[in-house]
Amino acid sequence: RLIIYFNGKNCEYVSVSLAMADTSSLPANWEVNVVFNIFLYNQISDNYLSSPGRTRCFLETKSEWGISKFISKKILSDPSNGYLVNDNILFGAEVFVVKKDAIIECVSLNNINIHYKHDFKISDFSKLNERCFSEQFIGGGQKWKIILDPKGSGTGTDSHVSIFLNHLATSYWFSASINSWGWPACIELATINDPNKGFIVNDCCLLSINIHTYLGSRSLQWD
């Protein structure tokens, strides 16, 4: 189960933990190895603020693991950020139990030189008030979009420009619930808006992204 601490150890942040539930049926000295991540749904932008995947061992003496500074109370409580809508918030978790069977995975990379470059030109940058999206493009046989949030999101809200790469279908690296990865605090607003830095010229910004595709064969062996 998920446990939300709105008054955690640090009063400025919300803490979130994953805990084992109903352990009475488990044998003495039990342990469960788990890979998990915790996410918070943005009800306005329809995406997720997610923690990096964590591997933890849950024990009879330690049945709860979590994140002490998941999100600041200031960001969470501001309805314009999209996490609190109609006095409701939505937390979730992905949990993968790691079996004790030894698994040997062999990956042979055949070609690591396949790459795709895409440019995203943004005009009237100073007039942007909401996140903007690039046109759909194909890289490595997959469909993508670039997302730019001029006012920042998550940890970069009101201080940085946020940039994300959005995968328009599921794959091994992008899950169904988390199909965007990027940098909430990519570049400080003061830096990108400084005309002497050269990032914005004639109120125009140019983003370039390189996607590298790794082709290979995989085999699994169980002990």
Automatic annotation (TrEMBL):
PROSITE patterns xref list: MATH
Cited InterPro entries: MATH/TRAF_dom (IPR002083), TRAF-like (IPR008974)
Coiled coil (UniProt feature): none
Domain MATH: 1-95, 115-223
Gene3D superfamilies membership: Apoptosis, Tumor Necrosis Factor Receptor Associated Protein 2, Chain A
Pfam families per the UniProt record, alphabetical: MATH_2 (PF22486)
Superkingdom field: Eukaryota
Name of this chain's protein: MATH domain-containing protein
Organism: Erythranthe guttata
